Amino acid sequence: MGSNSNLDPSLLLEIGPDGLLRESPVIAYTEKIIEEEKLQLKKYIEENYSKIRDVERELANLNLELKLTAGSKNAAFEHLRKKIEIQNEKIKAAKAKEEQAKKVWEAAAKVVKDEEAVKQKLCEDLNQLVQESSNSQYKRLEELKRRLEALNPGRASATTAANNMPTSASLAPSTPEVKGEAANVASEGVARTAPNQNQPAAAEVEGRGKRKVLL
User: Fold this and answer.
1) CB atoms within 10 A of CB 29
2) Tens digit of each residue's pLDDT (9 = 90 or more) over 54-90
3) Number of Cβ within a 10 Å radius of residue 181
4) Which residues contact 162 (CB under 8 A, 6 or more apart)?
């Protein structure tokens, strides 16, 4: 009994009017709080456990998917890797062909340049040959003119023809077509002056006829 006197009166059991023990209000409130905490804890555990189970289930499905697709993915990766290597080889071959084609083009361009230089040299040689030929023809014309003048020095027509004779500058062609024109001029000059060779003989015959008449 002495020990019960030291307890908190609110914690002591009460005896009701019916003679039955009544629970202390403090104890009842405490037990209620504890029960609520238990319910909340149980609910929290159940919710988290459900989430954990969901995560574990998703992880299991993912592992299964990885196992099922790992082989096909590896095969796809290997296939793509081989195709990339093949493309690299094709690119190298194309670059080599490009370099070879570039060298061939440069060689062809050099050949064209050399051929053009040869053509230019031939054109220059041709022009020089035409020039020399024209000069030679002009010299021959001059020689024929001097011979004709020596045969008939008194003819004024010969002097006139000599004055009208073209100079060497006008007879010096720069193209093969001009060479033909110079040849035509030479032939015309010979044709014009050739009759003068027979003029002294005709004059001599005419003089003899006059002498016979006088006799």
Assistant:
1) 10
2) 888 898 888 888 877 777 778 888 889 999 999 999 9
3) 13
4) 145, 149
